[in-house]
Amino acid sequence: MISPAGDKRGSNQVAVRQYNERLVLQTVRIKGPSSKAQIARYTGLTAQTVAGIISEFEDEGLLRRGQALKGKVGQPSIPFELNPNGGLAIGVHIGRRSTEVVLTNLTGNILARKQDVYLHPDPVKIARFVRGCRRQFSRRQIMKDSPLIGAGVCEPSGIGGWQAKLGAPQAILDAWQKVDFHAMLDDALDSPAVYCNDASAACAAELLFGDSDRLPNHLYVYIGSFVGGGLVINGNLFLGRTGNAGAIGSLPMRRADPLQLIDCASLIQLEAALVENGQGATALWQDASAWATHRPLVEHWITSAAPSLAMAVTSATALLELDGVVVDGAFPDWVCSALCDAIRAECETLNQEGISPTPLFAGRLGQDARALGSAALPLLSNFSPDHQSLLKA
Questions:
Q1: How many domains are there within the chain?
Q2: pLDDT value at position 3?
Q3: Range of the domain at 169
Q4: Do 223 and 263 share a domain, yes or no?
Q5: In this structure, is residue 49 part of a structural domain?
């Protein structure tokens, strides 16, 4: 869905103008403020083609001029950068414990946010909440001043089917079977949304707004109520045949029983420990300070989860020879850092004969990754270059 600018070359043919336009926009996003000459050099497009595209984007408000830079020779160089408020996107993250709706601009700044925390997700109530958020956002001045590019929705794959594992009442299990949930959400958002599973959306957010675009081939691991993942190949978010590539939560852990990674390295196990100690299952989602309050339980969960995560990332590395692994989750930075340290330590205990050493990094977005990822979906859909468009032209 998105690649480092240096890995793609444009075309000057009229038939692929849209591809070239998207390539220029992505180049500015990745490289930062850039002059027309720099953009032409990065993309391989002619100076004339770049000048025409830049002029069009200026008129549309997608790009703006930065402060002129004086060089030793000739006229000052004028850099162009993304105009943060040149477009807006609504992102909806539907989780097993909460739904979050955000309004973002082109550079991933969250301008408005609403969250609803629950014990079990009810599709009718979620759609009603999303509709209310859409109406509240529409009254903000920024939505009157900037165009809405679109809306994106991310959710766990088969969210209705997993509710039995979380102990949901039969009425909620039945509700998921009876409704056309995506149609309800499209109606609530007042437009068709772009849909994606939550872990892949979080991976897209890290790729678009984080630092992982420096890793052309990497596994992204995101730990929420259940652990999941995304896969980046050649700088693109690789979704696979059914859109579920990188679903490491389904990896088997032991030959003798049906345990999967989700049974060993998900936050649902930490929730269960909290309940056993007299706390509510939603405590972690309602108050960020709860993580520090329950530090002994959190550290025990890290110690328990790290061995299984180490096996998963080592297996992925052996199969794909990755440039790196990025780990993030719905927890504070200190938890992510401690978990990454524990995974690295566990990896060193495994037999890695024949496997190239692979660095492991902490993600940058944490709790915001999935909501930001959902908002990124319409941005990627509208502005990210896709080599398939060259084949169709």
A1: 3
A2: 38
A3: 87-200+372-381
A4: yes
A5: yes
Residue 236 corresponds to which tokens in the numbers above?
Answer: 């693109």
Are 244 and 142 part of one and the same domain?
A: no
Whole-number pLDDT of residue 305: 97
pLDDT of 151 strictly over 70: yes
Q: Are residues 147 and 257 in the same domain?
A: no
Q: Is the pLDDT of residue 306 over 70?
A: yes
Which DSSP letter does residue 45 get?
A: -
Cβ count near 113 (within 10 Å): 15
* Dihedral of alpha carbons 314, 318, 319, 324, sign: positive
Residues in the chain: 393
With respect to residue 314, please indicate whether it lies within any of the assigned structural domains. Answer: yes
Torsion region of 47: left, alpha or beta (phi above 0 gives left; psi -120 to 50 gives alpha): alpha
Given this model, what pLDDT does residue 392 score?
A: 39
DSSP 3-state of 78: coil
Angstrom distance (rounded) from CA 220 to CA 326: 5
Has residue 315 been placed in a domain? yes
Q: For residues 246 and 230, is the Cβ–Cβ distance under 8 A?
A: yes
Task: For residue 226, tell me if it sits in a domain.
Answer: yes
Locate 101 and state its tokens: 């709706």
How far apart CA 330 and CA 96 sit, in angstroms, is 12
pLDDT tier for residue 295 given thresholds of 50, 70 and 90: very high
Chain segment 348-368, per-residue pLDDT in tens = 999 989 998 899 999 999 999
Count of beta carbons in the 10 Å neighbourhood of residue 371: 29
Same domain, 59 and 120: no
Last residue of a domain, one of 82, 100, 119: 82
Q: What is the pTM of this model?
A: 0.84
Task: Give yes or no for residue 193 having a pLDDT over 50.
Answer: yes
